[in-house]
Amino acid sequence: MLVSKKRTEEEKNKYMQDLRAWIESQKDVPAEEMAGFFAARLEGYEGVHLGNWGEEYRAIADYFDDGLESLLDIGCGTGLELTAMFKRFPELQVTGIDLSSHMLGRLRENFPGKNIALVNADYFQHPFGESLFDAALSFETLHHFPFEKKLGLYKKLYKALRPGGYYVECDYVACGPEEEALCQAHLAEKRRKSGIPDSQFLHIDTPLTLPHQLELLEKAGFANVRVLYENGSTAILRGERSKKS
Ligand SMILES: C[S@@+](CC[C@H](N)C(=O)[O-])C[C@H]1O[C@@H](n2cnc3c(N)ncnc32)[C@H](O)[C@@H]1O
What pLDDT digit, counting tens, does each position of 180-196 carry? Predict the structure, then answer.
């Protein structure tokens, strides 16, 4: 397991100062639609992500229980988190869902011979089925979406788990309400300027605070919701489906 490194107030203040400056610098940069964003960056993508979250990718399998057989990975991309999962659970059956066919193509190349079913779809629209998976995972994909939209998705994830199953999320969290509001205002402004409607996904980060994340998982029905790890703006959360539900 990784050791948490929580930010000090001073570090959060510096982070917010840098974020405000970065958002200002992006004022005239055109907004990018989600799948197109990742397709355009496929070649450099894995290096950048492993550089930013290398230790979390290497350790993610530690947050799963022994005996894991089936996993739903939403927003699986090229599958960086699956390297550790297959190392610990070589026979794991993975269902991976992603909007980008380019990312899924790379995932397929990365894991020859593994038991993986890939679905090229929007995870908000795609039915996950009921009581099918031992566990579900999302890694760095849900920080683009607002509270209400995530709530519906978490409810769907809850139902997709078998009773006693659990969900693990490693994602970007806001350091406080000010960051959450600033990022949402940034997204709204980009939509206004570009005329892109709410129905189209933009690649703009809108992380929620940890209290909002925990509230969401509990509202969706998850039990024993907890933060397992924090490192700056990255957190690993876990919630469980009760054995009786
Ligand atoms: C930053 S990447 C993370 C990929 C992988 N989990 C990892 O950590 O390397 C985010 C991924 O989420 C996918 N994604 C974003 N919104 C999605 C949606 N609504 N439905 C399915 N996939 C989505 C993107 O296409 C992209 O591959």
Answer: 999 999 999 999 988 88
